[in-house]
Write a structure and sequence with these properties.
Length: 36
């Protein structure tokens, strides 16, 4: 997912997409669908 998804609902579960710092950049993900 890209920056256009920040603060929108996940298309799979409806949870809000969040922005996390990772490897010197940022990633946008659903904290419910994306697990570590």
């Amino acid at each position: 997912m890209g920056p256009n998804y920040k603060n929108r609902e996940c298309p799979n579960c409806g949870t809000t997409i969040t922005k996390l710092a990772h490897g010197g950049g940022h990633v946008y993900l659903c904290p419910s669908c994306q697990t570590e």
